[in-house]
Amino acid sequence: MNRAVRPKAAQAENPPPSPSDSVGVQKADEAGSPGAGTQDLNTAARSKRAGRKSKRSVNKAVIVIFVVLALAALATGLTYSHENNRLKALTAQREEEARRIQAHKDEHINARRRSGYLPLIRKYANEYGISPSFVSAVIKCESSFNPLAVSRVNARGLMQVMPDTGVWLAERLNVDDYQPDLLFEAELNIRFGAYYLSYLSNMFDGSPVMVAAAFHAGSGNVKNWALTRASDMKTITLEMIPTDDTRSYVRKVLDAYAIYYEEDIRAQ
């Protein structure tokens, strides 16, 4: 008997996706997971943030460098200003000292020039073999070229000759009719003083220190100082003079001597 052949039930099969379904699935996938566009945006944002941080770091470094340079410039400026002010002060001090020294010299030179006694000084200094510059120095320190000067011990005239010393000098120089008031006469006083300086110069081997000291304090005192203070028992220096007034006097004479000597050399 022929059995009718029953057709088999058709098996359920998934139909092939349609093109539209494939597109929908792709869109769904793109919507459900981060895609390439989102990654690009994140990268750009990170790069931008990194750029801002780098820029801020560069700005900070520039500011630090600027501050350091500014402080260095300020320190250099302050140092320069201090040194410049110090240099100006030293220059002003030296200029003031130079003016003082020049004024001191001018006062000495002008005092002798105004006195009009330089020809007499040269005359008797040359006659007795003594430096006219040294005679001028003694006159400046004794009377400042005042022929009528009188000291507290009655020394008189330009070179402050004591009256009893005048008697001794008048005898040696054969001056007749000597009277103490004659010491106020400029020529006689310069003659006596120049001769006495020459006498002391011979006694002390031409030492300006010892001659000036003996003129002020007496030859006996100077000899005693040499015996007790000098290593050779003959020659003393300025520092060896024990009395302040004589030491100061000798220092002034030496100073004036240097001034007049320089002026007289220039005038030759």
List the helices and strands and how they pair.
Elements: H1 19-32, H2 36-115, H3 118-128, H4 132-143, H5 163-172, H6 186-203, H7 208-217, H8 219-229, H9 244-267
Helix pairs in contact: 3-6, 4-9, 6-7, 7-8, 7-9
Written description of the protein model:
- This protein has helices at residues 19-32, 36-115, 118-128, 132-143, 163-172, 186-203, 208-217, 219-229, 244-267.
- By secondary structure, it is an all-alpha fold.
- It has two domains: 52-115; 116-267, Lysozyme, CATH 1.10.530.
- Helix 3 (118-128) packs parallel to helix 6, helix 6 (186-203) packs across helix 7 and helix 7 (208-217) crosses helix 8 (219-229).
- Residues 1-14 and 18-32 have low confidence and may be disordered.
Apparent shape? rod-shaped
Q: Kindly estimate the percentage of residues that lie in beta strands according to DSSP.
A: under 5%
Overall domain count: 2
Distance separating the two termini: 179 Å
The number of helical segments is 9
Structural class: mainly alpha
Name given to the CATH architecture of the largest domain: Orthogonal Bundle
How many β-strand runs? 0
Biggest sheet record: none
